[in-house]
Amino acid sequence: MLEYVLMLIPVVFLVGSVCYAYKSVSLGKRTRKKAVTRQIAAFALVGAACVLGSLTAFAADPAGTTASGDLGVGLGLVGAALATGISGIGGGIAVGNAAPAAIGATSEDPKAFGKALIFVALGEGVALYGLLVSILIINKL
Predict the structure, then answer these.
(1) CB atoms < 10 A from the CB of 17, how many?
(2) Which of 9, 30, 73, 130 is the most exposed place for a label (fewest CB within 10 A)?
(3) pTM for the full model?
């Protein structure tokens, strides 16, 4: 029973942060940065709780008799998830900044379309490289 309650804690953090962000953004522009900061903090707390929970479970049973895997596999999966997630966030930020600039440059000079497209594709490449790294990590497990 305690395990189910402990599994609900990350869900409560995530749902609470999304509700807070929605409410803050609907109230006005001044609180958007605060809402994003709190949402990132909630995601960091959930990630830390999951990693610490898995380490605690492994420390309680180091032989792995009750767990379905070992610590190396679990941390490998966490690393694969971090590689995909962080590269996806970085790629989104890059494309979010490069795409409007590319559209503006293309509207002023249609010949600049090829150069602008390259910069947008470089931002997307970051996310693809993270995905490839996570696939390599998962295949190594």
Answers:
(1) 20
(2) 30
(3) 0.57
